[in-house]
Each structure stands twice: as C-alpha cells, then as structure tokens.
Amino acid sequence: MTQGSIVNPTTSVVILAAVYRLLTLFCLLDVFQTWMAFIVSKPFDRLVQDVYMRMSGRDQLLQVNELERAMEELFEHINRLAKGKVPRPRVSASKVLQRFDADESGSLDLEEFQEFAKVRVSIIKL
Ligand SMILES: [Ca+2]
Prior knowledge:
Elements lengths: L8 H31 L2 H14 L8 H18 L11 H8 L9 H13 L4
C-alpha cells in the first residue's frame, strides 16, 4: 500500500457510520441499564409500594378506578425522574387489569401491581 496513511472517502464514510452505530448502541445501552437498574432498586420498590398503599383503599386491592389513579401517579413520578421525557402511556386501566390480574380476582394486589410497574418502566424508551 502506497501512501498508506490516506484513507479514501468511501472508507471514511464507512468508518464514520460504524462509529455512529456504536455510539447509538452505547446510548441505548446506557438508558436501558439505567431503567433496568432502577426497577430492581429499593427506591423503585418503595415508590411502587407507596403508590399502591395510598391508592388501594381499605380493601388493600386496586380496583379498576383505583388502578387508573395509581397508574397516573406512577407515571407522574417516573416522568419527573426522567425530567418530563417519558411519553404518556395510552393503555387503559382495564387493559392493564386484564393483563396483570394473575389470579383473575378482578383487582390488582401488591404483587400484581409490582409486576405491572416493572414491565411498564422496562419498556420506556427515551
Ligand atoms: Ca388479582
């Protein structure tokens, strides 16, 4: 190779594209790991329990209307942590109830709500 230090334009575009892809991947991984780290953390656990306790009323279960408020409150907290960057979820409380009511009791207990919260947060894309 003569003049080996000169990289032709095509090669530099290919290299730039590869670097760009790598950077994008690292950014995605960074966000991913942050949310993943968050949902297995104590503060997340406390947040979810706190929302659940305040919304579940005397029977300590989330009926569909309570679930709706709990989802809203959870979203507000998460969105604040993400500095307002989380898109508002469009899924209805009744859909969530259908999907996460593991024992088909018609309401969410704490464990079912925790599962919902983990899934909900893990799919956030910023
Ligand atoms: Ca249930």
